[in-house]
Amino acid sequence: MSWHPNDVAKRGNAASVIVAAILLFLVGGFFRSQVLNHQKYALQSETNRLRELPLPAPRGVIFDRNNKVIADNVIGYSVSVLALKEDSLRAVLQRLTGTINITNSQIEQSVRRFRRAPARPTVIIPDASFDVVSVLEEHRSQFPGLIIQSAPRRFYPDGPVVAPFVGYVGEVSEAELAKPAFAEYKAGQQVGKQGLEKEYESVLRGKEGSQFVEVDARGRIVKNGGAKEVNPVAAPDMHTNIDMDLQRFVAKIFGDSLQGGAVAIDPNTGGVLALYSAPSWDGNRFIGGIPAQYWDSLNADPRLPLYNKALQGQYPPGSTWKLATTAIALESGTVKMTDHMPVPCTGGFQYYNRYFRCWDARGHGSLDLKGAIAKSCDVYFYQLGLKLGLAKLVAGGVTIGFQSKAGIDLPEEKRPRFPASTEYFDSKYGKGRWTNSLVLSMAIGQGDNSQTILNMAKFYTALATDGKAARPQILTGKADRVQVMQLSDDQMEQVREALVGVVTSGTAAASAIKGVQLAGKTGTAQSGKFVNGKELNHGWFVGFAPADKPSIVVAVMIEFGGHGTRAAAIASKIIQAYLHVTPIVDMSVEG
Amino acid sequence: MSTRRFPIDWPLVSVGLLLSLYGISIVYSAGQTDVMTGVAKLWKNQLIWFCLALGAAYMMSRFSVRLLDWLTWPLYGATIAMLLLLLVIGKGAGTAASSKSWLAIGGFRIGQPAELAKITVVLALAKVLSQFKEPPRTLLELWKPAMVVGLPWLLIMKQPDLGTGIVFIGFAFAMLFWAGVAWPLLVLVASPIVSLILAFNTFYWGAWFLLLLALVLWYKPYLYEGIFLVVVNVIFGVVSQIAWEKLQPYQQKRLLVFIDPNLDRLKSGYHVIQSQVAIGSGGWFGKGFTLGTQKRLAFLPAQHTDFIFAVVGEEMGFIGVTLAIALFGLLFLRVTKIAERANDSYSSLVAFGLLASWFVHVFENMGMTLNLMPITGIPLPFFSYGGSFMLASWMAIGILLRISAEGRGGRHSHFAV
Fold first, then answer.
1. Contact with chain B for residue A174, Cβ under 8 A
2. Quick one: which of A317, A475, B249, B305 could link to A321 by a disulfide (CB 3.0–4.6 Å)?
3. Which residues of chain A are within 8 Å of residue B329 when distances are taken between CB atoms?
4. Are B52 and B394 in contact (CB under 8 A)?
């Protein structure tokens, strides 16, 4: 019987002997390594000879809609040092100062990089110029452990033209490295810092490769690994909706003198054709560390170039917002396009003990809604606002999206300021301590309402189409459109006709384009900045063309640009550049 | 049946506790690197898992062996279902990033079912083997045990998880041995695998083949079985070259580097060399707890999982290594005793199967850090960081406690068939 206790005991003994023998074999193995060969391994661990060299991957190339390059990679050089101890790193750096220009702060930064990853080569100059590299190559024998690698370097062929949406890349900072999201990053690596580069970092980054090299006790490379352990993998190309010709045109038209921002969107898809903030900056100069001089000049500039006016600037939308009042009123049935208001415009409107002025002191007389939009008559909209009521106006504004981000795929976008409901006024002024007079300012786009240029463009994509607002997207992809206003086709048509009226007979009459109907609305917003006792105004224009079948929505905001006619002139030029049509007359640009 | 207090097998429990505490302190040390990484906090997780594992061990010890016996097939069925599911939705992670060994729901990794499969397949194999009245003498009789192990083994190899596959083969042979299968038959069963490995050298393979023929003639299996074995050996010898090319490049590399790490010291050999340097530089007494330089400077790969024993070697030295091996030795001897004293063949086989499973882990893992075994990514019981394995190891201890307690009373009692 195989399960007889004697048999079992026999097998148990055999098993014990086998187990003991194998464990003793293991002990023997450890004895050989740890006791007999200890000297050899101890020396190896002291001067560990193998180092991992990172091989940076090229970032994804960014293209515009016509396959023109927006962001590219060119060959650059990085200089690093393999050091075993902090002291020896400092010694090498000290000697390097005799050959090339290294500042003390660069030395300290390098030492900090070394502390973060002592087993990796310490990056000294992430982006060395060819001159520096050739000097170092010449003196190579004096600097053991010096590693000069060619590394792909980011390059923006159009520099400042694309900076407002592309952003830039830079070395991953110590603050970032401390965050869990950057767990896979190592000191000295490049990372997207702004714009598309930041938004799509995980896609654009590619996969770093690595190579093992053998070094001697002084950190000199004695043997290159030859074949690479892991080849770097370039990131895939990225295709955007941007139209580089248009983007360049927008940048050119703003030039050096104008200050503000512009956004152009295809209303049918939400594809962003151009996005610009003036003045801009050159992302190429940010790579490999921003030169202090350039950084200081950007920061000292009163025109705030680093502040993205299209995405971060929040401006009172002014009269461009009257279309929101119009849409909300039409949707709720409060008014029809042909309705007149009880009080005709005589240059102002008396509401209880306060007199609200129309922008045109001469008055517009009695207008219907279409005429009021064309003439931008404030008095008409004061009364329309009162008829509608504050609660409905605010609720309608929230539905259209004035309280939320436009949702563009750029990290810098700021949320516009708009009350979430009338409770906002309760908490601001106290319950019951505010009156209906607030609705008068809200109805003409003033009061507690600050919008980004981008968000206003998004609003007009709904006006330009069937009431669906398109989420602005830089990257090509599926259109994302949401119904924000419930108007009949007729009503949408009427609204667009009224906007055409603005350009042919109203405030933006100078901006009509030959052969193509332009529809749009000017606006003026107070800036709070006074010169000679007179307040400087921001000028708006938001519009689209062709009016009957819009293919482009443009929002332009000129800071301190006076009345919106100037913005309208620029917008009309942008549209001309896109649609390739010529204007009837020269633009008369006036304040 | 009796109201007497449950007799706890204290030697088993204390060895298990000592090993776990030693292991957790090394997991703590593994996190103490110059540049702190996420590993630094993992010892706390491991401690929590350890507490859960103690609870699981207690629960398992309350299950009577008869209940376990009764539950064997449902558990086995559930295991197979889980492994099948894993092939569809499994995720890779950590050192096993390329294999589908993790069960995850919505990105949250729950565990590695293969760890529990190691127990349930032992139970199933024990059940099948315990039904033999006489130890199997021919290959044909082994079809049932072969099926029981083969099915989950194939599913695991499909993940692919070579390490766990080796463990399955290890405990399957050990349990056949424990069931009384004669050693020549075991050698015959294993012969195709040996052929597979030796086929790279015509001389070795020829010598092995002659040896095999002699064994067949001496053991005298049935004629057709003898012919079958010889033919299979020939086929395996021939197909090994083709099978080699079927292996993933990283698997090929690992095997080649095992033969000579310096062949590729800048690439695949890197891990083994760093591990050897770590262990060798530890000397008699080690560099001191948490002070290993290989580990601190991040030369040592997977220092908290597969290569954790290199940390023991570097920081605790030969003394610390010997202590760990001695503790494992005590564990194995104790479990052998439990298997000897068990009440019936099923309990006895379960005990020995669990022992064999641990043993393969220990041998393969430690051998790997010394380059005595190829790298297969197998954890060290009670040491390597990982919740599922800690849990499974202590569940095994719980089962062993029960078997030990039930076996105490009747050392010479009957073995049920």
1. no
2. A317
3. 19-20, 23
4. no
Q: What share of chain B is helix, strand, coil (3-state, %, to 5)?
A: 70, 5, 25
The C-alpha of B135 sits at a distance from chain A's nearest C-alpha, in angstroms, of 7
**Residue A543 DSSP code:** E
Q: Is B3 inside any structural domain? A: no
- The first and second tokens of residue A559, run together, are 């800071």
Return residues 229-258 of A near B (CB < 8 Å): 229
Nearest chain B alpha carbon to A230: B267
pLDDT in tens, chain A (591 residues): 477 888 888 899 999 999 999 999 999 999 999 999 988 888 777 666 566 777 888 899 999 999 999 999 988 888 888 877 788 888 888 888 888 888 888 888 888 888 877 767 888 887 788 888 888 888 877 777 788 888 888 999 999 999 999 999 988 887 887 777 787 787 778 899 999 999 999 889 888 887 777 665 455 665 554 444 677 888 899 999 999 999 999 999 998 888 999 999 999 999 999 999 989 999 988 887 788 888 889 989 888 999 999 999 999 998 899 999 999 999 998 898 889 999 899 988 988 888 888 888 888 889 999 889 888 899 999 999 999 999 999 999 999 999 999 999 999 999 999 999 888 888 888 887 887 788 888 999 888 899 999 999 999 999 999 999 999 999 998 989 999 999 998 899 888 888 887 777 666 666 666 667 888 888 887 777 777 777 788 899 999 988 888 999 999 999 887 778 888 889 988 998 898 875 443 333 322
Contact criterion met (CB below 8 Å) for B60 and B398? yes
Q: Can you spell out the DSSP letters for A386-426?
A: HHH-HHHHHHHHHHHTTTS----S-TTPPPPB--SSTHHHH
**Could you tell me whether strands A260-265 and A238-239 are parallel, antiparallel, or unpaired per DSSP bridges?**
unpaired
Name which of A23, A29, A45 is nearest B329 (Cβ-Cβ): A23
DSSP string, A121-172: PEEEEEEE-HHHHHHHHHTGGGSTTEEEEEEEEEE-TTGGGTHHHH--EEEP
Q: Do A12 and B298 touch (CB under 8 A)?
A: no
Query: What element of type H or E holds A522?
Result: strand A519-531
CA A433 to chain centroid: 40
Cβ atoms of A574 and A253 closer than 8 Å: yes
| Lateral strand order in the sheet of A50-55 | A50-55, A209-215, A221-223
> Does residue B5 fall inside a structural domain?
no
What is the rounded distance in angstroms from the CA atom of residue B204 to the CA atom of residue B197? 10
Rounded CA-CA distance A165/A159 in Å is 11
Is residue A23 within 8 angstroms of chain B, CB to CB?
A: yes
In a domain, B2, yes or no: no
**CATH architecture for segment(s) A50-167+207-239:** Alpha-Beta Complex (3.90)
- Dihedral angle sign, alpha carbons of residues A309, A313, A318, A322: positive
SS (H, E, C) A84-132: CCHHHHHHHHHHHCCCCCCCHHHHHHHHHHHHHCCCCCEEEEEEECHHH
A492: alpha, beta or left, given left = phi > 0 and alpha = psi -120 to 50? alpha
CB atoms near residue A9 (< 10 Å) = 12
Tokens of A538: 């921001």
Fold (topology level) of A246-579:
Beta-lactamase (3.40.710)
Residue A520 sits at φ, ψ, to 5 deg, of 175, 180
Q: Look-up: residue for tokens 């590695």?
A: B112
Q: How far is A54 from chain B (nearest CA, A)?
A: 14
* Rounded Cα gap, residues B87 and B102, in angstroms: 10
Residue of B nearest to A119 (CA): B297
**Of the partner residues A40, A117, A180, the one whose CB lies closest to the CB of residue B280:** A40
What pTM was estimated for this model as a whole? 0.61
When divided into structural domains, chain B yields a total of 1
Q: Which domain holds residue B325?
A: 10-407
Cα torsion angle, B194, B195, B201, B206, sign: positive
